[in-house]
Amino acid sequence: MLYDIKLVTEYRYASPVPFARQVLRLLPVERPGQRVIAADLAIRPAPTERTDSLDFFGNRITTVAFAFPHSELRLETRARVLVEKAEPRATQKTPPFEQIRRSAVAETDLGPKSPVHFLFASRLIALDEAIGDYAQKSFPPGRPILEGAFELTKRIKAEFKYDPEATDVSTLPADAFAKRAGVCQDFAHVMIAGLRTIGLPAAYVSGFLRTEPPPGQPRLEGADATHAWVAVWCGREAGWIGLDPTNGVAAAEDHVVLAVGRDYSDAAPADGIIVISGDHSIDVAVDVIPVGA
């Protein structure tokens, strides 16, 4: 599927910001099954400094600095991305999860796609016994890794409530798990915490999710969403496979990858330092439009 993507992020500050330095992850890059035809990030006002590069995990990062007062900041990403249709994978044909657990810790490759980076606690995801016990129920002895991970995906969808008021961006997996509520970031973090606690590699994926309007209704501009899901390492042959616990499905043509990391902190759209007095607001609008639609 070929998409035209537009992401607009607007910040408004209660008082002028005299200085800011930020790292932005707002541009997609080539991934297996995903080809970036074109991508551009427009920043208004224009920053004093701007540097584009790749981080360790292959995410495209834009480092900017503003050395002058500004009361608003507008970030507009436009991209054309081709997401290839993946062939359905038989979950039973992936290796038993015990084999994946042994293979992951025995990996000698330390490159960005190596499972060893996604086995342990990270900045926002601690290993958690209670979440591990919850995940373990999907992995009886000898169960294929993808079969168990997909069941866990569907369990989270069925047993957790999607509630934007229940959590915020700083909520840790243990709190979201205790509430059995949250948003896509929380569901992904809980699933990752459970998998890692039982020794299985799992990565955090941020990106875009195409949504369809109700039958007979026009598509609303800006109605699509930024999203988060999980990639599970299923061995060297199968590689990393995306699973979406918010929707209880495998990541497919409707999922466009923006960034990959150990948790949200590695894939956050923006972080950095802002010198400010007072509060600020943020508005985000996303369009993911199939070309020709």
Note down, in words, how this protein is organized.
- The chain has 293 residues and is an alpha+beta fold.
- The protein folds into two domains: 2-84 and 269-290, Immunoglobulin-like (Sandwich), CATH 2.60.40.2250; 91-264, C8orf32 fold, CATH 3.10.620.30.
- Helix content is 20%, strand content 39%.
- The protein contains six helices and 15 strands.
- The chain has helices at residues 97-106, 129-136, 145-159, 173-179, 184-197, 264-267, and strands at residues 2-17, 19-27, 34-44, 49-54, 60-66, 70-83, 161-162, 181-182, 202-209, 225-233, 240-244, 249-250, 255-261, 270-275, 280-290.
- Strand 10 (225-233) and strand 11 form a beta hairpin.
- Helix 2 (129-136) crosses helix 5 (184-197).
- The radius of gyration is 19 Å and the shape is globular.
- The model has no long low-confidence stretch (mean pLDDT 93).
Report the portion of residues in β strands.
Answer: 35-45%
How many domains, in number, for the residues?
A: 2
In terms of quaternary structure, the protein is single chain
* Series of H and E elements: EEEEEEHHHEHEHEEEEEHEE
- Describe the strand arrangement of the main beta sheet, using strand numbers: 12-11-10-9-13
What's the β-strand tally? 15
Kindly, what is the distance between the CA atoms of the first and last residues, rounded to a whole number of angstroms? 11 Å
Shape: globular
CATH architecture of the largest domain: Roll
- Mean pLDDT score: 93
Rg from Cα: 19 Å
Please give the largest β-sheet.
5 strands, antiparallel
What structural class is derived from the secondary structure elements?
alpha+beta
Query: What top-tier CATH class of the largest domain fits best?
Result: Alpha Beta
Contiguous helical run count: 6
User: What name does the CATH topology of the largest domain carry?
Assistant: C8orf32 fold
Unreliably modeled segments: none
**Helix fraction bin:** 10-25%
